[in-house]
Amino acid sequence: MNTVEINKRYTLLTEDSCCLSCGGALDKSEARIGEVCIDLGSGRGTDVLRLAEAVGNEGFVYGVDATASMIQKAEKTAEKMGVENVAFLHSDLEEINLPDETAHLIISNCTLNHVANKVKVWKEIYRLLKNGGRFVISDIYSMEEVPAQYANDPAAVAECWAGAITRDEYIKIVKAVGFRDFEILEESTPYDKGKIVVASFTISASKDEFSCC
Fold it and tell me: What is the pLDDT of residue 80?
């Protein structure tokens, strides 16, 4: 199953009431007045609009999503609500068209497990954060390696488990790109999801001038 077909499956989910989020990264992010923020996998834009209120007119929020229908819905909602300190980018998360050191804060809810190249997306997070900036990200991890036959199954991908990696591998990637003060803010007990057992967590770390890849 190729990327276009998987995205088509994901697009169909925008038309129903399915909740694609697995965590409360926004609630733990403590966004501040004047900050520039990025939401990776911004979907319908709900968290972007909440962040826009938190950072005030002095701040700005970018929503990034790989699905065009999500971007369209988010833009319409922002326009309807009269929210002007936001922008939505249609982009793969591995390569985002924003300058280095754009953001004080990056959040994401149950999106990074969809990304095929986990190292590349975490390098983008590191690149986009200002020195002293932070991420707060909720995601799932698998208790064991996901069987290969599910890697490109569109239903499994859309249900947020086909791309899951183990906890140890996840943390190893985050630290390898340069984040040093890694912290787990919240973690669930394991639960069944699709054909595997997973757990979810919310993690955070800051980028500082002494960090290196």
Answer: 96
- What are the tokens at 100? 């280095």
- The length of the chain is 213
CA distance 100 to 19: 32
Q: How confident is the model at residue 3 (pLDDT cuts 50, 70, 90)?
A: very low
Distance CA 136, CA 123 (A): 15
Residues 6+ apart with CB under 8 A from 157: 1, 6, 9, 10, 114, 163
Which regions of 32-168 does DSSP assign to beta strands (E)?
A: 36-40, 60-65, 86-90, 103-109, 129-142
Tens-digit pLDDT profile for residues 150-164: 877 888 877 778 899
- Phi and psi at residue 114, to the nearest 5°: -75, -25
Dihedral angle, C-alpha 130, 23, 56, 68, nearest 10 °: 80
